[in-house]
Design a protein that fits this description.
There is one protein chain. The protein is an alpha+beta fold and about 280 residues long. It has two domains: about 150 residues, no CATH class; about 90 residues, Nuclear Transport Factor 2, Chain: A (Roll). Helix content is about 25%, strand content about 35%. It has three helices and 14 strands. It has an eight-stranded antiparallel sheet with strand order 1-2-3-4-8-7-6-5. Strands 9, 10, 11, 12, 13 and 14 form a six-stranded mixed sheet that branches. A hairpin with a 4-residue loop joins β12 and β13. It is globular and about 80 Å long. The termini are far apart. About 5% of the residues have low confidence. This is YcdB/YcdC repeated domain-containing protein. Keywords: Membrane, Transmembrane, Transmembrane helix. It holds the Pfam family DUF4901.
Amino acid sequence: MKGKKKIIAFTLLIISLLIAIGFTIVSLLDNKAKEVKVAKRFVEKLQKMDIIDTKLNVEKIEFKSVDKVINKNSKTQYIVVGENLGINLDSKYVVTGFSEKVKEDISPDSIIDKDNAKILAEEYVSKITNEKFEFKEVREVKEEEKKSNTYTIAFYKYVKDYPCYDNEIVVNINRTSGKLQSYTNQSINKVKYNIKKNIDLEEAKNISIEYFSKLNIKLQIVKEPLLSVTLRVDGEFELSYVVDLNVITNDGKIDKYKLFINAESGEVVNRTSELIQDSTSN
């Protein structure tokens, strides 16, 4: 009897394990199917809104999910590819990126200008996401990228009703067709925010001027300071004024500075610079 009981118990255990394995396999297949379905719907949405170049029938494209992204710093967890298309999704199956490879020769006569590219980019982003965003810049093309067939356009994402300097939506617009060629929109991880404001815009300008006053050099505030959420070295986000200045040094060189001024204390918490030109060379 004891032998029969052991056999029955062992058999039940095997059956239970097989059922558990079956459920696990079904669950994994369902999850993989889910990311493919979401990616497919996203491409269909872009097609219907006439945002992308591809004229392929999405139903006939064989989309497949590649291995899960192993990167702790990346919000992207899944990558789905099909034909010349790629779609990234986060752990909640929200699309964080899209790209379409387009082989095309650049004809100088057919290139759209930056202003039109900016308008198109704003239109596309507003159709893709309901998030609040603000234009940041059309990225300058580096010398080695002069033959690029896209404009790269960045937008600030909003955090706590302010543009976030370190969190962007970035799109690439095809320079000849004006269509969307890539889209990146990753949210930052949950962090601490210090959103306090004790100084106004004029005070921020004065602090910037005072910061360089002891150096006895000429300077110019290039544009209106941006009140935005910025990332500190310790990983906390705070409200800061970002002030762009041109500084003419004593040896005649022009440096482009960005000062980050804490909106609560007025402290200059960060500074970046780059050489623009030699002012004596003209």
